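Q: Structure for this?
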Amino acid sequence: MKNIRSGITFGIVGGLLTFLFGGWSVVIIGCLMGVGLGMGLGAKLERKDPVQIAISVLPTALVSGAILVLLSIYQNSFVQEAIGKHPVESTIVLYGSLLGFLGAVLFTTLLAALHGLPEKREQQWKMALLALLIVAFPFVDKLTSLRWTAQIIFALIFVILGLGLNIVVGYAGLLDLGYAAFFAIGAYTTGILSSPQHGIYMNFWLVIWIAAGMAAIWGFMLGAPTLPLRGDYLAIVTLGFGEIVPVLFKNLIDVTIKEPFTCWILPGIINLFGAKTTMACITLLEHEDLTAGEKGISPIGRPYLPFIGEFKSSDPIPWYFLIICIIILSVFIIRRLRDSRLGRSWMAIREDELAAAQMGIDPVKTKLAAFAMGATFSGFAGAFYAAYIAGIFPSVFDFSASIIILCVVILGGIGNINGVIVGGLVIMTADRLFLPALKDFLASLLTHTVLPSISNPVVQLAVKDNANPILYRFLLFGLTLVIMMAVRPEGLIPNEQVRAELHSAEEETKE
Amino acid sequence: MLELKDVHTYYGNIHALKGISLTVNDGEIVTLIGSNGAGKSTTLRTIQGLNKPRSGSVVLDGVELHKLPAHQIATLGVAQSPEGRMIFPRMTVMENLEMGAYLRKDRTTFNEELDHVFSLFPRLKERISQKGGTLSGGEQQMLAMGRALMAKPKILLLDEPSMGLAPLLVELIFDIIKKLNEEGTTILLVEQNALMALSIAHRGYVLQTGEIILSDSAKNLKNDEMVQKAYLGVE
């Protein structure tokens, strides 16, 4: 009975989402819904025969699929009219609904049934299925012309950023409020090294490593003087750094670098003896526009691969697979790091710095390594971002970017790689896909249905101006964080250790 | 082996150690007794490098410890089972023990040492995958000592191992300390439970408000009138 209820909830949520996106979206939503519902149901069941599980969840799957399809059909016949669009052709509706229904039912039963297998096999199957979904997604997206891939890529950029920040905040326990600064350094390195700004056109495959290296060096340089600080003090310093870097890039538009020895020191000494100087001063840079200020650097060079050619903005699929590769590489490296001696010492430092020092761990070196490693990944993300957008502007990297990355880590689950990936996807798809779609939906609903029925022009205008959910973006982020902290402070997919700490008080009272 | 010479340590303006001098020879159990606030823990913290002495010297086998940071002192074979235990609460017992052996890179001696710790504290083996923070007080004490032993230290500093433990457990812990010493570990033991400490130690120092007021063999200290009155509760 409880299962059926969660089936109904999933069906309704999925169905309402089709209201926003319309058309073929029901197929993708159906499949994703099935995956979510199947995993949720499976986790609650005991391990037994897969076929039995499949039969037991089948009613739930059918109910959720049916609700989804009914809502989607309702969307096509009634909602479309209300928002002033023509209903889609009935063949699309038919096939879309059919595929969506099948996807929902199939994935729900399949994923729940997988729970019947031994644990290791279950993991393998889930990984295989996940890989299939990841590979199939952009092509399905292209076929159904939903254009989600381009937005998902933004989410994936934030997944990398979240993974990097997770090293600093999650593993080493250092609160970094200026993480976007390293993102900016990665992006600007790419911008400067492969754009007409300076006439340097380096290959993207080289630049991405230089960008990561630059970010790491800056992580090291910021860390070295500040990491002996603890807790709140460190957070304040990183906050300052995060503010300084975008301002710096905004103002590096007239740079003159003179070689100090020949320009000031030697002439100074000569002047001391009263002689007139006629030395030639060596100038390294004169009135050089390094970052183009507010205008930003564009266009920026793009990656090139044989057979695929140069990556283009019009075709997001190569970009999608590139960033998936970067994420897989990052996850692999971060996992190895976490289980290494260094990873252990990060966790010891997070637990108790003094005790860690007594074990022979050098706290400053360990923290520096965390800072530099975390920065490296944001360097990757920055290089990819710059190439993908083909332009960079200082305003992208301000304080709010740092906070959003921090939200990704906190919402997903501090210290848990899978959690951070889910957190990044949830926050950024909400920001990039859900809110704009909701905005369009509301706007057209208002102009075609609601507004004509309001007679008072003042009210009409007020409603029209304020019904834009994108305006409330940060309000919604903040609200989500507040609710998360109250209801589930350990994040969506928590790290075991964090959960143990947060809930230890409750367990004690239960005993 | 370990020698403190005229060590003065301050907390800000508070003069905590007013010229402590003591020696611990190879293979000894030396105990440091004294009441609350006498400076016992501060002495250990100074040896460990967590507090730096303003003057005086701490020398271990010819190396001047007071000039080194804490993590380097650990590499020289000084391990401490700290007061209040300071175990890693969110790591399992096994992970805590692994952290103790952080500086050792060879796997075989690691396993030997692990077996040794488990033979001393069979309870830890039962709790191997439990989180450190969820252990009872006695088990945490065992874990803290076990973790210190994992480093195979030259000298083991024990800070109040009996604190907050039931009498039966205190006896067990002290038996283990004695056993460790018989196996060749040099031990500097800080205790409020003077009777227990003096019964297993070879020599002892009595600390009062940052100064050493008495030093003698443990047997003589036990019979000393002043010590009996002040610390052993004999009228």
